[in-house]
Amino acid sequence: MGILDKIKEIENEISRTQKNKATEYHLGLLKAKLAKYRAQLLEPQGKSAQKGEGFDVMKSGDARVALIGFPSVGKSTLLNKLTSTFSECANYEFTTLTCIPGVIEYNGARIQLLDLPGIIEGASQGKGRGRQVIAVARTADLVLIMLDAAKPDVHRSLLEYELESVGIRLNKRKPNIYFKQQKTGGLKFTHQVPLTHMNEKLVYTILHEYKIFNADIIFREDCTMDEFIDVISGNRVYLPCLYVYNKIDQISIEEVDRLAHQPHSVVVSCNVGLNLDYLLEMLWEYLDLICIYTKKRGERPNFSQGHELVMRNGCSVEDVAHRVHRSLVSQFKYALVWGSSVKFNPQRVGLTHRVQHQDVMQIVKK
Ligand SMILES: Nc1nc2c(ncn2[C@@H]2O[C@H](COP(=O)(O)OP(=O)(O)OP(=O)(O)O)[C@@H](O)[C@H]2O)c(=O)[nH]1
Ligand SMILES: [K+]
Ligand SMILES: [Mg+2]
């Protein structure tokens, strides 16, 4: 029996199994098995099978955004609208067959937008060019799931399922569970909050399925079985995701309003050019980018556009110094920072200090 059949079988069994106290260990075991098989599916199977031609696009710019959606929802049309790159658009499916990168310039940031082939149900299991597309999605900083506003709501969850089943977690935080495998000592399980989904026996059942017999596990929040399996599997990526409902020129205003109120959603029309400004604002927000200004001693910072450094929120003085010049970190003595990340203006800080949006920084060398 192939892996796909095994996965199908376990999925069927999970859906057949009623969720209650008596079945929770059995379900835990099934879910752990399922996660293992899916991990196997993602492992390379021969060199050529994995790396799809035309999908190896260099990362560039301040952030990377991947466009995921069913065929003909308007992904390429969006790339053409937001960037100076051309990608062919047509009213037949699978017009785009490779990964086409473009650059969005916004707020001084250069954001790489990747147009990709449409994916279909079963993409995660290798249908169409699904696996290559999803592999690219894993490398993105933000996923744009594009949907045809006129199509049924279920399309949204079908795409979520494809991404979920290969370990991509959308708009979720990494579960706060400490997990460390050890050489000896057995399993040591503790929790710092009351647990409503998990207990010691369930944790051990799942770990045994993974043949893990020595490890420290600390639950720092009330996590579920699925979240625990994600932590053990270790290869999950947690990505922000925006749902872009395109072609709103084709639906009623009431329907537009309903879709606009879905979580993490933006409604647009690429052809007509409706609401694309707002989409860009949301891109910026979901990418969690910040602007930092650097200045030289005795000079004023230059706040005009093009003079900011676009960085990820949460980055340190070291990250900024590295961006200014690769050799700067080794010559670094301290930095002076003005802005919301410090108590005094300016304040002397070290490499590990975390900067905030619109901070001004002056680096003092040794
Ligand atoms: N009515 C309407 N049609 C649109 C809109 N945006 C794109 N389209 C049309 O939708 C069709 C498909 O657009 P594409 O950009 O090729 O779609 P795609 O998602 O890149 O398609 P594949 O590459 O085949 O997966 C084209 O005929 C577009 O003109 C829109 O806002 N409204
Ligand atoms: K198309
Ligand atoms: Mg296309």
TrEMBL record:
Short name of any one Pfam family annotated for the protein: MMR_HSR1
SUPFAM superfamilies on file: P-loop containing nucleoside triphosphate hydrolases, TGS-like
Domain of life: Eukaryota
Example GO molecular function: GTPase activity
PANTHER family: DEVELOPMENTALLY-REGULATED GTP-BINDING PROTEIN 2
Protein name, entry field: Uncharacterized protein
The organism's taxonomic lineage, starting at the top: Eukaryota, Metazoa, Spiralia, Lophotrochozoa, Platyhelminthes
